[in-house]
Design goal:
Blueprint lengths: L4 H5 L7 E10 L3 H13 L4 E4 L6 H10 L5 E5 L33 H7 L2 H17 L7 E3 L7 H14 L10 H5 L5 H16 L7 E3 L9 H10 L6 E6 L6 H6 L3 H12 L2 H9 L1 E3 L2 H5 L9
Parallel strand pairs: 1-2, 1-6, 1-7, 2-3, 3-4, 5-6
Helix pairs in contact: 5-6, 6-8, 9-12
């Protein structure tokens, strides 16, 4: 696959290397909101997305109202993975649509969502999350996916359609069906992912080349592995590096067994170490707002 066509539109050359440094899970807990605030103020990240159904979403929305330059999207949330701390859907029809478990919360795994969720119930729930974000003062720059829960053929279809309806770029990767298959997705889903990405590019909606991250279960030499991941961006690619930064709080420790990795994500980006690495590698940092601005007027599902 050739150079990302969005690069030229953004003023880059076809051989430049570009990355979005994206903060996931904002609003999941208080520590995620304060971490994003510190990182955004320091210019250490370029965008993030909020979990609208979660308890600390209002704090994330308050921050965006106070800082309208904040590049914030909606972290499409259909799962609730932690045992002691659960959240559920905004829509009343979610239960009959296969979006709740025996605790009346979102299922704990994306596999459970793919197995049981009605695509129209998913579309209604994600629409409610976008509308709630907008009503709270966030003008979303994009929509992505918590735990990859929309990455199932019929669910991804409605996810992309909804993004186009709101004029925001959806999470989409420039991968072939064969490349998607390495992620364990069904043949039907892989074919659909490739088709929808091609369709997005054809109408001028920007897409990404790769998603990069270091597993939250991997605490050893986390900074080194993060640098290695960033360095893997090839000329002509626009990649998406996700991190899950949080301050070290009792609440965070009570929720997440992987809290140490989340704290390390905050510390290593806030220190400037990763910004220095990007500069050394001549990798350009952009946010999702720049990509949203590329969407031609009139593009709709």
């Amino acid at each position: 696959m050739g150079p990302n066509p969005a690069l030229k539109k953004l003023g880059f050359s076809e051989t430049d290397r570009v990355v979005l440094v994206h903060t996931d899970d904002i609003g999941m807990c208080q520590a995620s909101v304060s971490a994003f605030a510190d990182l955004w103020q320091a210019g250490a990240v370029s965008c993030g997305s909020a979990m609208v159904p979660c308890a600390w979403f209002n704090a994330a929305a308050d921050y965006c109202q106070e800082h309208p330059d904040a590049d914030m999207g909606v972290h499409a949330t259909l799962t609730s993975e932690w045992h002691p701390y659960r959240w559920g859907p905004l829509t009343s029809g979610a239960a009959t649509g296969g979006l709740t478990d025996q605790e009346a919360k979102f299922p704990k795994t994306s596999e459970a969502v793919a197995k049981a969720a009605d695509p129209q119930a998913v579309k209604a729930e994600l629409r409610a999350q976008i509308e709630h974000a907008k009503a709270a003062g966030i003008e979303p720059t994009h929509i992505d996916t918590h735990m990859g829960s929309v990455m199932h053929g019929p669910l991804y279809e409605v996810f992309v359609d909804l993004a186009l309806e709101y004029g925001i770029p959806p999470f989409a990767l420039r991968l072939t069906a064969e490349q998607w298959a390495f992620g364990g997705y069904s043949e039907e889903s892989c074919t659909l992912f490739e088709r929808r990405t091609d369709e997005l590019e054809d109408v001028g909606v920007p897409t990404l080349d790769r998603i990069l991250s270091v597993s939250l279960s991997d605490e050893e030499d986390r900074a080194g592995k993060t640098k290695q991941a960033l360095s893997s961006i090839k000329p002509g690619q626009m990649s998406y590096f996700i991190l899950h930064p949080s301050h070290d709080t009792a609440e965070l420790r009570g929720i997440c067994p992987d809290w140490r990795s989340r704290v390390m994500d905050l510390e290593m980006f806030l220190s400037g170490e990763m910004a220095d690495h990007l500069a050394e590698e001549n990798i350009h940092l952009i946010g999702y707002r720049a990509l949203k601005d590329l969407i031609p007027q009139g593009v709709a599902a």
